Amino acid sequence: MSIQIQDSLRRRKAPFRPLVPGQVSLYVCGPTVYDDCHIGHLMGPVIFDAIARWFRSRGYLVRFVNNITDIDDKIIQRALKSGEPWLAITQRYTAQYFEFLKKLHVVTITDHPRCTEYIDEMIAFVEELIAADRAYKTSDGVYYDIQRQEHYGKLSGRKLDEMLSGVRVERSEELRHPADFALWKLAKPGEPTWESPWGAGRPGWHLECSVMSSSLLGQAFDIHGGGDDLKFPHHENEIAQSEALGHSYAQCWMHNGLIQYGGVKIAKSDPRMKDPEFARQFQAAWLLDTYGAPTIRFFLLQGHYRSPVDFKPENLQAARAGLARLLKQLGALAEEADETNAEEVFARTLPLPLAERRAAYCEALDDDFSTGRALGHVFALLNDAKKLAGKEQHEALRLVRDLGRLLGLFLPGDAAQIADDEAHHGELFEQVMSFVLTLRQEARARKDFALSDRIRDGLAALDIHVEDKAGSSTWRVGS
């Protein structure tokens, strides 16, 4: 069976047909490096790393480009506000991003271009657009004329009169259409600049990705990926300016789902994000420290890449518990060196029930990279193994491990990290309970029995039961 992919542009699933037989060219939008990474910055790389791993498993040579936006309005604003040089800011947060990718076993990215490395190519690109009468100069820069673009809005499904929402430019009376977007922005005093035919300035956001992708992958390449929130205006504008120069650009568009909490989409405008404790739950560092990188990767691959991911704590806790149980059952197999070879895994002679599970796993991934369904077959295989013994059980467990490793899961050290995380949180829980019971004893000493009872009853509601003894209290979880 060939790999089938849901194309966001054509809104249908179709067989993958690479431009170059046996090769895959993939571009995925990376972060703007002006602040600490949140989990949204890492979802795409983890998901598309799993996709790239599967392409490799199917025998393809993959070139995977993931850019770094290291010049942008947000970076400049951060530098002006903090007084820190913009270059120092971008270097620090780029290093942080790379460290998180390493922890999450993202290993298939071949190129990490930085926008500032391609300024000359961006200037040449804008010159071509002006020469083709698809862009025009204003007093503050150069803009793309979207009204000259046939079928503008074909990716997002928006029409020109709906284009104002989400536009990431300052509107000017000089614009031919309010949604015309900046290709080159003339610099204000104190801002970083590069010389150009239109004056000192810097490239626009959309231009950056079009130039970097085509410079590395060619004017036509196989797949462009990114978060669903990038369809408009970012990806729409990439298509417009590239097609204006005759580039066929990305042959297929793939978009991963976005972050939710309790079934509600998370956005910067969400009032809940004003609460620091709530917002912290989406910081990459906090998530990795709290649940561990193996759990986060496993959690992100449990569903389908096009579906939203709900970061409610109980969902993450369930993922960690499920992964811990699986790794415990694998035992020493999970700690063996990762020498997984997809060709050998697929060719391995297996009893019929195990071979059928393997075939179902492959079918799920060939069907638009359905990692959640594939992992469902892995868990079913794990249950099958419980019914076996000896060599047959070992073979089933080895298959579980190897199928997981094709997606970057069940790697050496994962089990130890989860065990360390659980031990750490167990110690932390002990410390918290000691503190709570000390506060309760102080309330009892003050004869504030209402507060004492409130603490006891609140803990009981969490299935933590307190027993008072002479001058002290003990606690237990469960009945």
Indicate the topology.
Elements (H helix, E strand, L loop, with lengths): L3 E4 L4 E4 L7 E6 L10 H19 L3 E6 L6 H10 L3 H18 L15 H13 L3 E4 L2 E4 L36 E6 L14 E3 L1 H13 L2 E8 L3 H13 L5 E8 L2 E3 L2 E2 L10 H5 L3 H8 L1 H8 L8 E2 L2 H18 L11 H6 L4 H15 L4 H16 L3 H16 L8 H32 L3 H13 L2 E6 L2 E6 L2
- The value of Rg in angstroms is 26 Å
Provide mean pLDDT, rounded.
92
Distance between the termini: 53 Å
Number of helices: 16
Domain count: the total is 3
What is the CATH topology classification name of the largest domain? Rossmann fold
| The CATH class of the largest domain | Alpha Beta
| CATH architectural category of the largest domain | 3-Layer(aba) Sandwich
- Structural class designation: alpha/beta
**Could you name the ranges where pLDDT drops below 50 across 5 or more consecutive residues?**
none
